Amino acid sequence: MEHIFESLPPMSRTAILDELRARIAQVEAVGGRHPVLPFGIDAIDHHLPGGGIATGALHEVAGSPDLADDAAATIFLAGILARSRGQIIWCLHWRDLFSPALHLAGLHPDRVIFVEAGNDTNVLIAMEECLRHPGLGGVVGELRKMSLTASRRLQLAAEQSGVLAMVFRRAMPPESQAEGSAALTRWRVRAVPSPALGFPGLARPRWSLALERARGTEPQIWTVEGSDETGCLAVPAALVDGSYPSQSRQAA
Q: Which SUPFAM superfamilies does the UniProt entry name for this protein (predicted)?
């Protein structure tokens, strides 16, 4: 077998290896044991292994020092959690979130238990402990930094319980993209101008949604309308004809 493989033309060997890597990565990314939370937008769901955000796994959402971007990232995260079932544990240094705003993305404040942990170390401890309880709908941790070892522990705990784990890296600078992580996906959300409708306050927020890193697929960027009261994104009206532009990005 080795002799036959070595005798193949370089392009054939490359194609075979690429296909094997893709299949292995897809198995590693989803595993088939836990359900996924689809976004409801074909261009995004078809791009993600399994067709959505995998539960029983760790994901990252990158925030930004820009207030509009940070708010968009928070609502994006809340929208994902709103589509899960069960209580949400939100671990953070101190409670500075305006919880009624989460309701705008379908995440009712009654579903959220906030844990004020004081620092990154305690947030990680609280997250790992909460992830041991399979009845939860999700566990969020707001972190400034996360080591590769810490991310592996969270990923393992999420796999074992089947609970969705989300790390929110608020005010995360783009240069931090190179940091190692065991998370299946990393997302970055930026607010972009919405088209003027002639009536102030009626335009749905529009975002640039970047999949910066993902196991089993390539980075990508989409333009979407922000989460509604059910936690769902939408395709901007100008793109509903099926031509959905997206922009590939090089992996970090």
A: P-loop containing nucleoside triphosphate hydrolases (SSF52540)
Spell out the alpha helix ranges (H) of the chain: 2-7, 10-30, 42-45, 67-82, 99-102, 120-130, 148-161
Strands 206-214 and 220-225: antiparallel
Residue 112 DSSP one-character state:
E
The answer to whether 163 and 84 are in contact (CB under 8 A) is no
- pLDDT value of residue 238: 62
Q: Please give the Cα distance from 144 to 124 (Å, whole number).
A: 11
- Return the axis-axis angle of helices 120-130 and 148-161, rounded to nearest 10°: 20
Phi, psi at 30, each rounded to 5°? -110, -45
CA neighbours within 13 Å on the CB side: how many for 179?
A: 20
pLDDT of residue 9: 53
pLDDT at res. 30: 45
Domains by residue range for the chain, with CATH: 31-248 (3.40.50.300)
Q: d(Cα 68, Cα 71) in Å, to the nearest integer? A: 5
The residues, ordered by sequence, that sit 6+ positions from 31 with a Cβ below 8 Å of its Cβ are: 56, 159
pTM of the prediction?
Answer: 0.80
| Per-residue DSSP letter, 40 | S
The residue type found at 52 is: G
Torsion, CA 120, CA 124, CA 130, CA 131, rounded to 10: 140
Question: What span, in angstroms and rounded, lies between the C-alpha atoms of 113 and 182?
Answer: 25
Q: What is the rounded CA–CA span in Å between residue 195 and residue 184?
A: 33
